[in-house]
Amino acid sequence: MKNLxxxxxxxxxxxxxxxxEIVGSWGGGLKLETGQLRINIHIKGSxxxxxxxxxxxxxxxxxxxxxxxxxxDGTTLVCLAPEMGLSYEAGMRAEELTGIWRQGGxxxxxxxxxxxxxxxxxxxxxxxxxxxxxxxxxxxxxxLAGITLSGTLSLPKxxxxxxxxxxxxxxxxxxxxxxxxxxxxxxxxADYLVRNGIAVLRYDDRGIANSKGDxxxxxxxxxxxxxxAAFTFLQKQEGINNKKVGIIGHSEGGMIAPIVAARNKKVxxxxxxAGPAMAIDELMIAQGNAxxxxxxxxxxxxxxxxxxxxxxxxxxxxxxxxxxAKAKLDGFLxxxxxxxxxxxxxxxxxxxxxxxxxxxxxxxxxxxxxxxxNLSKTExxxxxxxxxxxxxxxxxxxxxxxxPIFEKSKINHSIVELTGLNHLMQSAETGNVSExxxxxxxxxxxxxxxxxxxxxxxxx
Length: 460
Fold this sequence. Notes:
By secondary structure, the protein is α/β, with parallel strands linked by helices. It contains 12 helices and 17 strands. The N and C termini lie far apart (70 Å).
């Protein structure tokens, strides 16, 4: 790190003021063709001792990435990370950093403003003040796994008995609020439902927050066992109409809900929010294609990458267990090189490391799973909602698979595509993940109303 000294024309006081001016946390949106990507830069140090800086990309769950060199002369800031091919150069104007972020051959506008830590995002839908319902901390046991799960049971005030739902989260470790990108979708959804007379149980995933167990060793099948334990617990609670208890699942949770409903005929209904209907390996290809196209990547390159990914997914599907997949990975790599027409290539060692990160119990189960088997066995009423701008579980492709399944089984069902909503059911411009934390809305009022009205409209 180079030490910066301001000697000529500066007094000690001016040096201190300059340091105070640049030191701190700065945040803003990296302007992409497809939207914005939040970037935060945290600067420490002084003019006398030199500066250090780290940056965050919250949307990508990347935090505390250091710059190897930082320079500031009172008007211009330069942050360098040559090992990543990255730099940021900005001028200070009216307490704003106005500059260019360069990475991977791209030069993108990035303007930052100073903020005090911690900076809470604006989330106007989160409930505040005295609530017109009752929240109770609860615990229940998954007997199969021998673990205790913790959650919140929200009950409408009044006599009851009330219809009720459990909320099942999507992929990745989630707390009972399903907190992601500064949003708390399950808190907002629960608040809306209970205000409309529907009791809600939401819980921390196993191994997360107050729940016991090991999240990293679990598969979707294990999470289905957790969900069924939550369902059984909720049925037995005072004030609950045990004939009208259902499951609401988002994303992977929308895949888990049919696993439970197919085997437990006491499930009165289920709501799939962006729930997969396609075979998961096909969904992963559709997802990759949608996201890449929305990001402006050349179609030929998209096809080459997805072709390789498809081969890898089928390799995993063909393996009877995870240990066999790990043992045969070298053989797969020797037969399938990763070299693209634009000259991009990855060494076998690098590729093995990247692909090896997918060799987990969860992903091996997930990629082999076909939701259609359990969807076809579902006998309860079903509401399936999709966002027209969802790039992770594309609406058109999944609705095309889901519709004939339910029409054949003749169950009470409603499949709805909500215009302009993304994977989180937010009103969105592009649907890209980079928008999620910039959107103040946590869940569209249209989606909330659609879910609530459908549940309340079910026959007694």
